[in-house]
């Protein structure tokens, strides 16, 4: 029994060390209390990948219960960017979606839309190559109130230059659009960033936020 306890404690310690070893840089938007995001789309320019390592660059949505993150990830572990959509990481039965390789400097598109039954559909494309993937995710019952633009590094430093987004459109339920034009949360004040071309419109119980350019420029 003691041996099992030692193994369990060692395993938990390893998980904590891995979590603490990850460097995070991200901006976060939050709608008004009680309102939730219903779509998230835009263009993302893949920077030059310096080497094969755990680079995760992603836009994503996180729910009110913080049970995971629904994301579109540029993954640099193979030495070539791979772009795919998925729900990470609390439900292993919910399969990761399809994806494709992306060349350095290519601009890819992402679109995540909540369906009438509460599930979500992701469509990602590379307009240059014609590669695309569409996947459905059974995320009914998840209320998403965090829209995130993230750089997640487990080992490497931020050595690839800027991460640039354009033509971003985020929609939420409700009528309070202040979250769109307010300054986003800059996690730990860790990121130098620039944002331009922000505007919002309010329709019938829906806020549409448009951001022409959002760039994560460098560590602060």
Automatic annotation (TrEMBL):
The keyword Signal applies. Keywords: Signal. The keyword Signal applies. Residues 1-21 form the signal peptide. This is Uncharacterized protein. It comes from Talaromyces atroroseus.
């Amino acid at each position: 029994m003691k041996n099992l306890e030692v193994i369990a404690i060692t395993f938990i310690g390893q998980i904590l060390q891995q979590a603490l070893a990850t460097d995070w840089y991200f901006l976060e938007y939050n709608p008004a209390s009680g309102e939730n995001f219903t779509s998230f789309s835009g263009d993302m320019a893949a920077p030059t990948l310096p080497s094969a390592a755990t680079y995760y660059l992603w836009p994503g949505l996180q729910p009110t219960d913080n049970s995971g993150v629904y994301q579109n990830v540029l993954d640099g572990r193979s030495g070539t960017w791979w772009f795919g959509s998925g729900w990470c990481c609390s439900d292993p039965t919910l399969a990761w979606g399809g994806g494709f390789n992306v060349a350095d400097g290519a601009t890819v598109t992402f679109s995540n839309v909540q369906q009438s039954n509460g599930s979500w559909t992701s469509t990602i494309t590379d307009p240059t190559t014609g590669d695309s993937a569409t996947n459905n995710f059974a995320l009914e019952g998840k209320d998403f109130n965090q829209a995130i633009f993230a750089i997640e590094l487990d080992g490497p430093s931020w050595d690839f230059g800027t991460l640039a987004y354009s033509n971003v459109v985020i929609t939420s339920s409700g009528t309070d659009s202040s979250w769109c034009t307010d300054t986003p949360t800059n996690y730990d004040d860790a990121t130098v960033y620039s944002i331009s071309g922000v505007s919002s419109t309010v329709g019938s119980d829906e806020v549409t936020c448009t951001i022409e350019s959002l760039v994560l420029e460098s560590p602060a």
